[in-house]
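Lecture notes, unit on binding sites. The following record was shown on slide 14. It pairs a sequence with pyridoxal-5'-phosphate.
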Amino acid sequence: MSFLLNKYHDLLKELSDKHISLVAVTKTKPAEEIMSAYEAGHRDFGENYVQELIDKYQALPKDIRWHFIGHLQSNKIKYIASFIHLIHGVDSEHLLTQVNKQGEKINRVIPCLLQMHIAEEETKFGFDEEELHQVITKLTGKNLVLQNVSIRGLMGMASFSDNQELVRGEFRKLHRIFKETGQRLPPLNDPFSILSMGMSSDYQLALEEGSNMVRIGSLLFGPRG
Ligand SMILES: *Cc1c(COP(=O)(O)O)cnc(C)c1O
């Protein structure tokens, strides 16, 4: 079994001491590995691919809280809308309105994070500050009422880089945007309180810069093939 139990307990303890939520990222990992973490008491798991998520959702205990952390295509929302605990990667206004539409159909308010583009790489998805500003303005205005999504916070990925100061700067920027956005929003039913940033390679920096939810895969389950 490649599940690294000792490391898992050390990491869990560190995070729980700091009141940080851990999303255990299990993409490409078999259901048995998820079950061993489940049996150790863990409930929050993250997946990137809709089909893989559905297969695992069907096979595994129903009290697992599934996080969708990948790039979500709008035509696939309907497959996860009924059970997804949190969609981390809402990266366009179009996707947000489509999630809302699916929520309407099944009479469910779907919790979402808006994904911010903070890395240098062009390929990473997400809003820039100006686009976020526009979406928030619409959400707080009277014209666009999205009753079936709940914006719980922000998510972002830093550059894949050994340059710690670069990565730190990107996390710091996201934390600043998170705080500013929280101040702009009117009081919500569910608080705008989640800042999802940090993965195996950079979670320490993310925590130092104000993250309260980390998404960790390879550190827990070993490298992906
Ligand atoms: C795969 C992935 C992770 C986890 O990556 P590790 O380096 O294995 O910890 C976190 N967030 C997102 C969005 C991912 O795609």
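Take-home: The pocket of pyridoxal-5'-phosphate is lined by residues 25, 27, 48, 69, 157, 199-201, 215-219 (CB under 6 Å).
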